[in-house]
C-alpha cells in the first residue's frame, strides 16, 4: 500500500461500524478526501479526540481500494477559541459546510485550503464575527471566480451551491 502524508482540516466525522469512523478531511495536497480511521471509537484509540471537526492535522494515510486508511495523525491546531464560544462555533461550522459542499473529492485547491485556515484563525483570534464571516464569503467567491461587487456574498454562494446558505449560519 502506498502511503501519503499531508496536512488537512477535519470537515466531518461519522461512525462507520462499531469501532471505526469515516472522516472527511480537506487537505492542502489532495483536496477533500474520505478516510477510514479504524478503532477511532474505542476509548483507548491512538487517535484520541484528534478527529473532530475544525482540527488541523498532519496526516499519514495509506491508499486503499475503496477508502483510504488513516494510519497516523498529529494535531497542529485545534482552535480552542472557537470551540469555547457557541456563536464562533456556529460560524466555523458554516465555513466547513460551504467548503464541504463546494469541493469534489480529490480536487486540490490550495487557495481554498489557505482561505479556510486563515478564516478559522481570524475567527479564533478575533471578536468581530461579522468581519470574519464577510472575509470568508468574499474571498471564497474570489477564489472560486464568482465575486460580483454589489451582490450579497451569501446569496452568490447559495446560487453556486444550489442551496440557501443563509439558513446554515445560525
TrEMBL record:
Protein name: DNA repair protein RecO
Presence of keyword Thylakoid: no
One annotated GO biological process: DNA recombination
Domain DNA replication/recombination mediator RecO N-terminal: 1-79
Alphabetical list of Gene3D superfamilies matching this protein: Nucleic acid-binding proteins (2.40.50.140)
Domain of life: Bacteria
UniProt xrefs under NCBIfam families: reco (TIGR00613)
Alphabetic keyword roster: DNA damage, DNA recombination, DNA repair
GO cellular component: bacterial nucleoid
InterPro entries membership: ARFGAP/RecO, DNA_rep/recomb_RecO_N, NA-bd_OB-fold, RecO
Amino acid at each position: 500500500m502506498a502511503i501519503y502524508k499531508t496536512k488537512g482540516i477535519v470537515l466531518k466525522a461519522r461512525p462507520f461500524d462499531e469501532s471505526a469512523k469515516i472522516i472527511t478531511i480537506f487537505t492542502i495536497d489532495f483536496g477533500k478526501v474520505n478516510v477510514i480511521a479504524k478503532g477511532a471509537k474505542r476509548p483507548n484509540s491512538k487517535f484520541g479526540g484528534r478527529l473532530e471537526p475544525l482540527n488541523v492535522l498532519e496526516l499519514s494515510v495509506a491508499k486503499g481500494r475503496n477508502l483510504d486508511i488513516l494510519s497516523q495523525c498529529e494535531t497542529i491546531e485545534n482552535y480552542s477559541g472557537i470551540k469555547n464560544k457557541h456563536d464562533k462555533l456556529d460560524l466555523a461550522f458554516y465555513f466547513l459546510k460551504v467548503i464541504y459542499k463546494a469541493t469534489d473529492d480529490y480536487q486540490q485547491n490550495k487557495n481554498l485550503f489557505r482561505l479556510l485556515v486563515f478564516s478559522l484563525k481570524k475567527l479564533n483570534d478575533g471578536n468581530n464575527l461579522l468581519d470574519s464571516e464577510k472575509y470568508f464569503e468574499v474571498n471564497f467567491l474570489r477564489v472560486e471566480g464568482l465575486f460580483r461587487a454589489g451582490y450579497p456574498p451569501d446569496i452568490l454562494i447559495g446560487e453556486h451551491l444550489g442551496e440557501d446558505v443563509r439558513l446554515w449560519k445560525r
